[in-house]
Amino acid sequence: MINKELKLSLQNILKLWKTKLAGNKYFIKIFSEYLNTPEGYITLIFKNCKFGSLENLIQNCGSLPENILKQISFRIIKSLEFYNIQTGEYLHSLSPNNILFDSKGNVLVI
Fold this sequence. Notes:
The chain is of the alpha+beta class. Helices cover 44% and strands 17% of the residues.
């Protein structure tokens, strides 16, 4: 069973995401969220990222050309900078499967 502290913490994170991050072009927009108690699962409904994650891209393509890596890296750095400015914290959960690509090839962080 999920405790009240954890539930409140999750709600605060989601509120932060929806109010300060989702309007930015580097962060994915969350349309809806469900906290399934007592199990403690969170279900997020967000923008469809048609082209999957950076992890998928690396698995399917192997190494990437330098010019593509520069563009992806730049967008990741800008998203981290924006997160830090908005929250005063650093994003610690960044991994290749948290970096998504929309239908236009834009990089979005979740």
